[in-house]
Design brief:
By secondary structure, this protein is α/β, with parallel strands linked by helices. The protein has a domain of 221 residues: NAD(P)-binding Rossmann-like Domain (Rossmann fold), CATH 3.40.50. The chain is 39% helix and 17% strand. It has twelve helices and 13 strands. Strands 3-2-1-4-5-6-11 form a seven-stranded parallel beta sheet, with helices on both faces. A two-stranded parallel sheet has the order 7-10. The chain has a two-stranded parallel sheet with strand order 8-13. The longest helix has 20 residues. The model has no long low-confidence stretch (mean pLDDT 91). The chain binds NADP nicotinamide-adenine-dinucleotide phosphate.
Length: 331
């Protein structure tokens, strides 16, 4: 199969492209003009330049492929509009470019557990629940999902709602790893918030398994390991993998998190001149997510329909991740 992967330089894309190639597929990795492919394994992978914000750049990238895995997204950004442009308008532009070529194309949209909202071990998110996204990012991913489903009569579309990912090239967790390496473990509200976590290699293998499943029989799936992990335990596993015997737990309570959230919101309402100083990577949703009830889903439907199971347990996944960051002098 010839497969176009967007977001190829990201956490998921950079694990997915070599996995698809090694499974015998022809891979075309879409990268932006500004993207760095330095940390990517690009052997026998075709590179196509494209930006979902520049619709005219997408036609060539989409030409002649049998399947598209749309993993490009913005989780962070200065404001909601910047995130929406990439996640919603960008998905529309890509679908538009793809459908002009071959209506028989398979389109896999990589969405997020946050499109469904919050879930706990007692009440995990399931595909048949009404989605209640609580963050900007989650809302834009849900909007994009709806656009994808509108195209389902013209191409075979599937939405994968992935849980919290970690692994090499991640842009979210490294500050936490560095803080723990420094000797401080931040525990929002005591660290009891539970999450479904998945190493990027396992998320990539879920995508491959879906591509190899002729008809998965549903248009939306949660994908996850079946063992949610409290934040505090995740930090403990990271601490052990870093080889730190002591790390001081610092509990950040709801009021402090709310203030951080309000401060980020206020900074965003300042005049442009000042607002532009906010780093583009500032993520307005982080306090909201960490204060939420949990990011837990039930992924049994995906496992039943595809036979997929994750390969790495949390400790193995974290050890590999830390080793990669050390090899690249990033912690
Ligand atoms: N990370 C998670 O915890 C998580 C959890 C659930 C779902 N997901 C979903 O999984 C997918 C992959 O996430 P990730 O964590 O791998 O992402 P990531 O590491 O943040 O990388 C984002 C990718 O999208 C590309 N991109 C951003 N804006 C673009 C644009 N305008 N045009 C084309 N490409 C653009 C980036 O290219 P550059 O290299 O040029 O910046 C990068 O390759 C996303 O759809 C995300 O919503 C992620």
């Amino acid at each position: 199969m010839k497969i176009l992967v967007t977001g190829a330089t990201g956490l998921l894309g950079s694990a997915l492209c070599p996995l698809l190639r090694d499974a015998g597929h022809d891979v075309r990795a879409m990268v932006r003009q500004s993207s760095s492919t330095d940390l990517m394994d690009v052997a026998n992978i075709e590179i196509a330049t494209g930006n979902v914000l520049e619709p005219e750049s997408l036609a060539a990238a989409a030409r002649g492929v049998d399947a598209v895995v749309h993993a490009a997204a913005a989780a962070m950004g200065r404001d909601e509009e910047a995130i929406r442009r990439v996640n919603v308008d960008g998905t529309y532009a890509l679908l538009d470019a793809v459908r002009k070529h071959d209506p028989g194309i398979r389109f896999i949209f990589i969405s997020s557990i946050t499109a469904g909202g919050f879930g706990t071990s007692q009440h995990p998110l399931r595909e048949d629940m009404i989605p209640r996204p609580a963050t900007t990012y989650g809302r834009t991913k849900l909007e994009a999902e709806e656009i994808v489903r509108e195209h389902a009569s013209r191409m075979a579309c599937t939405v994968l709602r992935l849980p919290v990912l970690f692994g090499p090239r991640d842009r979210f967790f490294p500050p936490l790893y560095r803080l723990i390496a420094f000797g401080i473990t931040l525990l929002p509200e005591g660290g009891s918030m539970e999450m479904c976590l998945l190493h990027a290699e396992d998320a990539a293998s879920a995508v491959l398994r879906l591509l190899e499943t002729h008809d998965p029989g549903a248009d939306t799936f949660y994908v996850a390991d079946d063992r949610p992990v409290p934040w505090k335990r995740f930090c403990g596993v990271v601490q052990a993998a870093l080889g730190r015997s002591v790390s001081m737990p610092v509990s950040v309570n709801r009021n402090v998190m709310r203030r951080a959230e309000a401060l980020l919101d206020r900074l965003r309402s300042l005049p442009d001149r000042i607002e532009r100083r906010i780093p583009p990577d500032a993520c307005p949703d982080v306090p909201r997510l960490l204060l939420g009830r949990g990011l837990v889903c039930d992924a049994s439907l995906f496992r039943e329909r595809t036979g997929w199971t994750p390969r790495l347990d949390l400790t193995q996944g974290v050890k590999r991740t830390i080793a990669w960051y050390r090899d690249h002098d990033m912690i």
